[in-house]
Design goal:
The protein is built from eight helices and ten strands. By secondary structure, the protein is α/β, with parallel strands linked by helices. Bound molecules: adenosine-5'-diphosphate and magnesium ion. The site of adenosine-5'-diphosphate has 11 residues, from strand 2 and helix 1.
């Protein structure tokens, strides 16, 4: 369970302060798939970074499974990220000098897995995303949609409790993007307690999730099931 209580993120520059997010209060129970929509600058990425402990709130409380994680050091946040979060970004963020399999293994290196376990887990993750047999290629040899599949395999290989995707289809054509969303939802469906949060500009994508948050000016303006929030 994710719980945000009056969370604010302000950005300071010289003598001005700009509100990036908040105040936002919301809970996301285990198992839920949530879409976050809104115009550019609405605070979607800041919300995702806060949930993913890439960033910490200026004020307010973030509880993860009841534990207050709002004021943790970067070191302790990085451990929680490593063990419990999977990230997928618009830019796939793969390392070109590594093979596909090595990219997928990266989180497991940080988790301290043996190389044989890593290779096997990467193989299974690549099977899951439809890239069986591509493990020895370099990331740059793949198409955009395939690279995003590798990024998804890397995000899920450590079996994270929370999957956070920031415009995962933003660089893809619509049919490839649709396949990527289907893949994320299929993987989500396999793990009953996993939370999935997808930031998207695409209403068609948002419709497929359990819940939609509509953001504007750092605030959550609407929060409900897609049929209600995206009715018009
Ligand atoms: N690192 C930063 N420094 C200063 N302002 C930022 C920073 N990141 C985001 N912001 C501001 O916070 C607001 C929300 O940004 P963001 O969360 O990136 O929106 P979105 O992802 O919805 O486009 C915007 O006004 C943006 O300019
Ligand atoms: Mg963004």
């Amino acid at each position: 369970m994710i719980g945000l209580f009056g969370v604010i993120r302000d950005y300071h520059a010289r003598d001005t302060t700009a509100r990036g997010l908040g105040p936002v209060s919301l809970e996301i129970p285990a198992g839920q798939a949530v879409a976050v929509v809104g115009a550019s600058g609405a605070g979607k990425s800041t919300l995702l970074s806060t949930i993913g402990l890439l960033d910490s709130p200026t004020s307010g409380v973030y509880r993860l499974d009841g534990i207050d994680v709002s004021g943790l050091s970067e070191k302790r946040r990085s451990v929680i990220r490593r063990d419990r979060m999977g990230f997928v970004f618009q830019r796939y963020n793969l390392l070109d000098e590594l093979t596909v399999s090595q990219n997928v293994e990266l989180p497991l290196i940080y988790q301290g897995c043996s190389s044989s376990r890593r290779r096997e887990a990467a193989r299974l993750a690549l099977d899951k995303v439809g890239l069986s047999g591509k493990g020895r290629l370099r990331a740059w040899q793949l198409s955009g949609g395939e690279q995003q599949r590798v990024a998804i395999a890397r995000a899920v290989v450590g079996k994270p409790q929370i999957m956070l995707c920031d415009e995962p289809t933003g660089n893809l054509d619509s049919s490839t993007g649709q396949l990527i969303i289907k893949l994320l939802l299929d993987i989500h469906g396999e793990s009953p307690n996993r939370i999935l949060v997808v930031v998207t500009h695409n209403v068609g994508v948002a419709r497929q999730l359990d819940r939609v948050l509509v953001m504007r000016d750092g605030l959550v303006m609407q929060d409900g099931i897609p049929q209600e929030v995206l009715a018009q």
